[in-house]
User: Fold these one by one.
Assistant:
Number 1:
Amino acid sequence: MILVHASPKTLAPYRTENLGVLCSPRCVYADDIQEWSWAADNDAFSKWDEGKYREMLARIRGRKGCLFVTAPDVVGNAIHTLRKFEQWYDELFDHDLPIAYVGQDGHGFEPYWDWFDAFFVGGTTEWKMGPEAADLVREAKERGKWVHMGRVNSYERVRYARSLGCDSVDGTQFSWFRDAKLPGHLNALRQEMMA
């Protein structure tokens, strides 16, 4: 599934079972997302804002169809991400939405597998495409977790994410160049699923 930072109204012409909405603290589509598969990111890669993140959590609370809500993370740093996850866990758990833990560079330890519902492949490009991330994805799938890979902006990376077993991906190309990129990628996914 491709998750796109765009409103459901904007995505309606492209709608297929392989397309979902990705909210963030900057763009919350709380009133329109319940008819879609959707997830909520935390904006840590672009511009983390604790206040806006909390506002997003309040707006999406109780909404149906949520695949995951990304816990706060620190890009490129697994230890700091784990500490941040520990700080936020109780608050996220209280919102009764599926929690995604973000894997990051230097993840030479077991995450709290029982504490989250989805595994988000973050980190630098080198880490994301490397063996440590692949091992964590395999472990997550064996444990029945939803797996999402962020910053997927090419056919090659979409194929790689699918080969690992990722359930969903996102990338700025799908938001910024919707007309040019989305139809081709959705068609390729549909053909792969039919093969």
Number 2:
Amino acid sequence: MQEAGIIVEVHPAHIPEVRSPGEPPVEYVRRLAQEKAETVARNFPDRHILAADTTVVVDHQVLEKPVDLADARRMLRLLSGREHSVITAVSLVRPGAGSATRIATTKVFFRDVSDREINAYIAGGEPMDKAGAYAIQGGAGPWVERIDGEYSNVVGLPLSLVTDLLREAGLL
């Protein structure tokens, strides 16, 4: 956001990020983004609060942040040579004016990735705090053959969607 010229303060919501049984991925990220925004808004009732949540989906499987190195390896092997979706929900709470939540989806196509490449990537520690166990802007970037959708969504926050929400709220 700072690269887009938007000044922000960060206040983590510290909510449980647990998917309900059978909850569709889009509804899951929508619910989490809304809960995060509403939780923080209770502490800052006179401020606009923006929150987001992202997940990766392949073959109807939701890939969140890996729980350990073996989980990261499992995810990256699953993504190798395949298409997957990065789904982000962004929620904006406006003081006295309710909230708005939008969804961005970007399809990402990985080339075949060798076990040696995956192991080297994991050894660097980068995948451990990333949905789907990878960062497109980091060491996994060379694995991406192409994307269909917004690059910034895969990096972490769909900037065109965010700026649209902020513009509609009269903040830009």
Number 3:
Amino acid sequence: MELERVSLAIERGLLRRFDSLLARRRLGNRSEAVRDLIRRRLLEEANEGGSGEAVASLTLVYDHAQRELSDRLVATGHHHQARVLSTMHVHLDGRMCLEVMALRGRPAELRQLADHLIGLKGVQHGQLVLSAARI
């Protein structure tokens, strides 16, 4: 891999906060951290309108005591079996559960599926993280 040296102008306060983040999380040096940010943004951009295949994780935190919610989650998984690769279910306490789904498909389809599940009554929080299936 051939590297090219570049110069960036960044506000002093922003750079201090970035350096603090790198130190707290032990993320290495500035150059590698900036390369990671660029790669992440390029993947996000590729997935924005992408018609290619993507992989994703969908995390849901929900109240399993909500009437019919668990059944709806299972039914949706079966209905979208081509997109849902795997699920993991964790009991957080007497009422709350964490569900993590591994997904594969077109970005727009995965967002639509995620929006549907996150919007179900009883889901407290949900987040979809998309990545390109091939880089």
Number 4:
Amino acid sequence: MTEVRFRRPTEGDYLAMVRVIDDWWGGRDMQWLLPRLWLQHFSSSSWLAESRDGGLAGFLVGFLSQDRADTAYCRLIATNPNMRRQGLARDLYEHFFADARAAGRSRVVAITWPGNRASIAFHRSLGFEVDAGPGTQNLYGTPAYPGYDFDSEDRTVLTKVL
């Protein structure tokens, strides 16, 4: 995308990001996914996209796993709904994939709610595969782990081999 600029987020970006996250996820309560600590400790492995006018266009918050030397993990990715279907999320991921490769990682893992068909389709279009291993069940039409988070939140696990 030529109309956006990519850079590392800083703690100073926190309020702008947290103010839009619920709206960008269709009004769902998602602020809890982005506590300030992510920008205090993981900004060097995350990306922010700004529009030409300096407005927030999107962001990806991720990290390189300390316990799994082959893995990078995308905590969340969000794009301004008015800028979707223009390749912005793909570009954010490509920046993250490049970071992961440079750090010697061979795979990227992400999770999503199994009912979020758009997210699953998007991740699959990037080459992510849905984990259908032991413990998964068909939830909302896709393999997922029931009670994956908080013993009540179902999640589909997606993995991309780099």
